[in-house]
Amino acid sequence: MPADLDLTRLRVLAAVARTGSVTSAARTLGYAQPSVSHHLSRLESEAGIPLLQRAGRGVRLTEAGRLLADRAEEILARVDGAARELEALAGMRAGRARLAAFPSALATIVPAAVASLRADLPGLAVSLLEAEPPEAVDALRSGRVDVALVFEHTDVAHTRSIEDLSRFEVTDVFDEPVHLVRSVAEAPADAAGGVCTAPALATLSDADWIAGCERCRADLLARCAQAGFAPHIAFETDDYVAIQALVASGAGVSTVPALTLRAHRDPGVVTAPLPGAIRRIMALTIGAPTPVSYTHLTLPTIRLV
Q1: Is the whole model's pTM more than 0.70, yes or no?
Q2: Would you say 270 and 187 are in contact if contact means Cβ atoms under 8 Å apart?
Q3: Based on the number of CB atoms within 10 Å of its own CB, is 43 exposed (0-12), middle (13-18) or buried (19 or more)?
Q4: HTH lysR-type domain location, by residue (predicted)?
Q5: Quick one: pLDDT band at residue 254, thresholds 50, 70, 90?
Q6: Contact between residue 265 and residue 136 where contact means Cβ atoms under 8 Å apart
Q7: Are 256 and 148 in contact (CB under 8 A)?
Q8: 212, 153 in Cβ contact below 8 A?
Q9: Rg for the chain (alpha carbons), in Å?
């Protein structure tokens, strides 16, 4: 195995993997195409194993190439992050915090966190990226953000996890319940203030269901499977406002996490926490937070909001 791998060549390989071709990678990096080809050839020599193979007029990554490209994204993110932190520590420029978060978090806990950061650290530039967990993880791994706010459903064993999170520093933000949402017209006698006791899911096996985002839909399917039935999905939408409006109109029933209800609550629905149904909210970073690591200053702020 090689003692050293050149960072510039790793950056070239990562660009090829990300863009899908040598030509696109050259355009993205601002290099001449022969220069990209030269860097790739030298990287293969350094690695001691083929990283690319011909595919028609183009190239594709070998198994070793894909592995190294994935690790290159992590290495480059760490190096770039270290450079930003050193610049901030040396007073060369004000810091910045770049956060990726999913829509219901952006509509609830993130605005207060951003306001608190700006009040406490006027020199800190904060930018936000709306992204579902897989896209947020990818943005963190590639160095496009410093913190990824993500979620996963924890109590259904066969619900697919985001991915192996062992390569990241994981800070638990909080756990939130998942609610069953029905129309007021179907409200049971114990409903008060729009909240009631959840019935067994099996009693709703004949109902029309409204599914949310891909991960929420997977959780719904897994949860219904545990209850012994496959739900009839009548509507699908990522918009939690639309989900509640459809439920209020009598178009079906749904499940939504608590943050979506905090962001918007339709007066035409009643909700009930599903027993044991939990969505875990986490903040991911690359590298352990340090007292001078401004890229991680969002973590305690979000946790306290």
Answers
A1: no
A2: yes
A3: buried
A4: 5-62
A5: very high
A6: no
A7: no
A8: no
A9: 23
